[in-house]
């Protein structure tokens, strides 16, 4: 494959020296960009966009074309592709978010679930990865991703998004055997899916544990972190002659950074409720850190964005091992010029720390 022209993102994940702090942004291909909205309109709907490798490639590259400072591309897809490939019937309702036609509510339902084959059942994702890698032509590394088992399980048991995870938590406490069976099947599926992405060309992978922070400390360790560890243990860690770093991101996971740092991932993602300086002191040299500006800062003026970037860089301090990102995804109403000011500030203000 083509040599990387810009590998500072991968170097920072491995805590190797970099010239400036690398930056990318969760949901960087998305609704805040007019060019994304135009491509999505062309596709017809969100899932049609995800399932068309050419269009998924187009929207993955749009932010890179607009913002030359970006140090990574992230595959355009959705975390719910795995449950959909398990036969749950994913669809999106306007204003309601993702929904499933079938809901998992018993051990029998779980036992009937297949483990998807990445090339046969999720081939459109693998084709998108291959297409993006080819079109990137070594510009920046490509990040692959998946939802965590616990996060995927909540959608499958609730039948969609939830504010209180009532059904998922009821299953977890009432019938832990069923929940463990579901999480184990999902861990196998995620491992296979991420390895498929790595073989197809993803150069780093991120596990999004969006709802791990909803759990108690004991439940998090048993029902979320333990299954992410299973995945990390089963991933391809070298491909194309390079190490493939793994980023673990639990939204609301700041309480458990020490446990997360023991799992074997190269980096931990932080949401904005954590102080990155104290997070660095807590995890030491075990892992790199990714984050962690509040996405709402992007609604402020460019000077305010710059001040917050400077504060976070100062809190992290000297040396490599920091990938700058938001503490969660960019929101659709942000002015694209403000995102540009954010990326510029990271590169400009971080050189002094390297």
Automatic annotation (TrEMBL):
Positions annotated to bind substrate: 27-31, 78, 155, 210, 328
Any one biological process term the GO annotation gives: protoporphyrinogen IX biosynthetic process from glutamate
UniProt-listed Gene3D superfamilies: 3.20.20.210
This protein's pathway: Porphyrin-containing compound metabolism; protoporphyrin-IX biosynthesis; coproporphyrinogen-III from 5-aminolevulinate: step 4/4
Taxonomy, superkingdom: Bacteria
Coiled coil (residue ranges): none
Protein name: Uroporphyrinogen decarboxylase
């Amino acid at each position: 494959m083509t040599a990387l022209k810009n590998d500072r993102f991968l170097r920072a994940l491995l805590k190797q020296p970099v010239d400036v702090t690398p930056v990318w942004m969760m949901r960087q291909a998305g609704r805040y960009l007019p060019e994304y909205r135009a491509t999505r309109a062309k596709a017809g709907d969100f899932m049609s966009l995800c399932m068309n490798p050419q269009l998924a490639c187009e929207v993955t590259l749009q932010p890179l074309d607009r913002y030359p400072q970006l140090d990574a591309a992230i595959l355009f897809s959705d975390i719910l592709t795995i449950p959909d490939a398990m036969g749950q019937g994913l669809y999106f309702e306007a204003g309601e978010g993702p929904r499933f036609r079938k809901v998992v509510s018993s051990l029998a339902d779980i036992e009937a679930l297949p483990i998807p084959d990445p090339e046969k059942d999720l081939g459109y994702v693998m084709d998108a990865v291959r297409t993006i890698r080819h079109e990137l032509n070594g510009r920046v590394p490509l990040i692959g991703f998946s939802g965590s088992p616990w996060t995927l399980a909540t959608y499958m048991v609730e039948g969609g998004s939830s504010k209180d995870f009532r059904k998922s938590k009821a299953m977890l406490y009432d019938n832990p055997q069923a929940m463990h069976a579901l999480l184990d099947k999902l861990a196998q599926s995620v491992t296979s899916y991420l390895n498929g992405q790595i073989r197809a060309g993803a150069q780093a992978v991120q596990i999004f544990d969006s709802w791990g922070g909803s759990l108690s400390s004991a439940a998090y360790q048993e029902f979320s972190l333990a299954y992410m560890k299973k995945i990390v243990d089963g991933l391809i860690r070298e491909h194309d002659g390079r190490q493939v770093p793994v980023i673990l991101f639990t939204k609301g996971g700041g309480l458990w950074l020490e446990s997360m740092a023991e799992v074997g991932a190269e980096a931990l993602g932080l949401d904005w409720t954590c102080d990155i300086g104290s997070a660095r002191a807590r995890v030491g040299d075990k892992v790199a850190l990714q984050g962690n500006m509040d996405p709402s800062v992007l609604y402020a003026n460019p000077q305010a964005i710059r001040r917050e970037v400077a504060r976070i860089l100062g809190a992290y301090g000297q040396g490599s091992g920091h990938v700058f990102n938001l503490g969660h995804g960019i929101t659709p109403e942000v002015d694209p010029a403000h995102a540009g000011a954010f990326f510029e500030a990271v590169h400009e203000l971080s050189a002094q720390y390297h």
